[in-house]
Amino acid sequence: MGYWRVENGAIVAQSTPEIPCSKNQFLVWQLGDIDNFHLKLKYKIEGSDNANSGIQFRSFVQPDGHATGYQADMDRAMNWAGAIYDEHTGRKMLAKRGQKTVIDQAGKRTVTWLDKADALTKKINKDDWNEYEVIAIDESLTLKINGTVMCEVEDRETAHRDLIGKLALQIHSGPPMKISFKDIQLKRLPREDGRKKVVLVAGKPSHRAGDHEHNAGCLLLSKCLNESVSDRILPVVYHNGWPADPTAFDEVDAVIFYCDGWHRHMALPHLESFDKVMAGGVGLGCVHFGVEVPPENGGSYFLRWIGGFYEAEYSVNPHWKANFTSLTKHPITRGINPYAIDDEWYFNMRFPKEMKGVIPILTAIPPKGLLPEKNHHHNSNAIARKMVAESSPQHMMWATERPDGGRGFGFTGGHFHKNWGNENQRKIVLNAILWAAGAEVPETGVSSTVTEEDLAKNLDQKPVRKKKPKKN
Questions:
Q1: How many other CB atoms are found less than 10 A from the CB of residue 356?
Q2: The pLDDT of residue 470
Q3: pLDDT value at residue 462
Q4: Which domain holds residue 256?
Q5: What percent of the chain has pLDDT over 70?
Q6: pLDDT for 313-347, tens place per residue?
Q7: What is the rounded CA–CA span in Å between residue 281 and residue 254?
Q8: Per-residue pLDDT tens digits for 430-443
Q9: CA–CA separation, 121 and 117 (whole Å)
Q10: Same domain, yes or no, for 99 and 128?
Q11: Which of 64, 231, 333, 424 is deepest in the core (most CB within 10 A)?
Q12: Are residues 114 and 240 in the same domain?
């Protein structure tokens, strides 16, 4: 950070004889990843003609902080300004100023000229501010400086192209230089390749290790989607609560909440603004505690968005082995076999009258004697005990289709992280994510493989609760 500062409303990177830059340095936007987008900013380069900088996009950040991937290049000598370079990947220059490069699946390049490089150089201010635009739509990349197209790339090399990644600003190694950026604007753009974009929002850590692993669970589901149905779905994960990225829900097809609920539900402060997202026909899925909101603050929204919700003092949350002996015929249940699994299965949910518009997906009969006789705001009440005593079938997963075209589902399992290792449990949620996003669910469901090593990854570092010493 010794190279970076804010000065007169601009982000400035500067190296000096006292603070030389011997290795490329990057300032990374921390709020999210970018896929299809239109970026506008103004830049100015000062110093020797060897001064060099760039805008990294859809990039991967190495452990040492080096951002690798696409770079919209710029330099004071005008050798590279307006070119697309593939930083630190081996592919190097993809299109120089004035070129259009088409890269086929095997990596073969076909280069044509849009304009002469020297003519385009005249459009760039060497000693003043320039407006730089980066437009990325699926495999198509376009750079503009001061409103003029500088170069284009069609990157069809599936083994090396990047469709999503980080945004970063660069100061290049070399002699003393000063790079300034200001008026940075980012607009999300819709996908044109037919894939649906799903944003998985993981709540903050809670409970003991192995329970409510929101971050690890979302990353695991994202991994399965990427490995199995990347031709249909683009998953994006936000960690540890409500996204700080103001563009997080732009141009999305579905959102998944896997988080704590009740009065701690991360959506409660954002109900009105998120309702506008839902009104656009965006799907919503809520997993485990994420289905619970207070009835007076969120209940009516969740009833509309996903068709039901957990209401404290009415719904209950016992740990029990639910036996799903028969399955509703629905795209969400494709490839699912009847199964039984121990989880914290919520039931006696708040649904519309006569379940209007709600489709039960997973239904089981709770065993008699499951609930304690003493009333409790979460795990027992007279209404729920009567349901159990009468062997009333209870719905642990459900789906709905909203009048605005959006789809919603609730899944009350997911307390134990290890349960994502169960193929049926994992598949039914993956199927539901595709369905909520409006993607076609494969006839045999979303196939995926999860190992013990996969389950052990990305677990939250949770504090160990010290036991209180016993009184003498």
A1: 9
A2: 56
A3: 63
A4: 196-455
A5: 98
A6: 999 999 999 999 999 999 999 999 999 999 999 99
A7: 9
A8: 999 999 999 999 99
A9: 6
A10: yes
A11: 333
A12: no
The pLDDT value recorded for residue 461 is 78
> What pLDDT does residue 1 have?
83
What pLDDT score does 375 carry?
86
Judge if 65 and 132 occupy the same domain: yes
Beta carbons of 414 and 341 less than 8 angstroms apart: no
pLDDT, residue 154, reads 98
Whether residues 261 and 322 share a domain: the answer is yes
Claim to verify: residue 328 and residue 415 sit in the same structural domain: yes
Q: What is the bridge-based pairing of β-strands 92-95 and 99-103?
A: unpaired
Domain annotation covers residue 471 = no
* pLDDT for 3 beyond 70: yes
Count of the separate structural domains present in the chain: 2
Measured on CA atoms in the order 282, 288, 290, 291, is the torsion positive or negative? positive
CATH at residue 55: 2.60.120.560
Question: Are 182 and 216 in a shared domain?
Answer: no
Residues 136 and 204 reside in one and the same domain: no
pTM for the structure as a whole: 0.92
The pLDDT of residue 469 is: 54
The domain that holds 276 is classified in CATH as 3.40.50.880
On whether the CB atoms of residues 59 and 70 are closer than 8 A, the answer is yes
Answer yes or no: do 228 and 261 share one domain. Answer: yes
Q: Convert the chain into a string of H (helix), E (strand) and C (coil).
A: CCCEEEECCEEEEEECCCCCECCCEEEECCCCCECCEEEEEEEEEEECCCCEEEEEEEEEECCCCCEEEEEEEEECCCCCCCCEEEECCCCEEEECCCEEEEECCCCCEEEEECCCHHHHHCCCCCCCCEEEEEEEECCEEEEEECCEEEEEEEECCCCCCCCCEEEEEEECCECCEEEEEEEEEEEECCCCCCCEEEEEEECCCCCCCCECCHHHHHHHHHHHHHHHCCCCEEEEEECCCCCCCCCCCCCCCEEEEECCCHHHCCCHHHHHHHHHHHHCCCEEEEEHHHHECCHHHHHHHHHHHHCCEECCCCCECCEEEEEECCCCCCHHHCCCCCEEEEEECCECCECCHHHCCEEEEEEECCCCCCCCCCCECCCECHHHHHHHHCCCCEEEEEEEECCCCCEEEEECCCCEHHHHHCHHHHHHHHHHHHHHHCCCCCCCCCCCCCCHHHHCCCCCCCCCCCCCCCCC
Could you read off the pLDDT of 111-129 as tens digits, one per residue? 999 999 999 999 999 999 9
Q: Please determine, for residue 466, whether its predicted confidence score (pLDDT) is greater than 80.
A: no
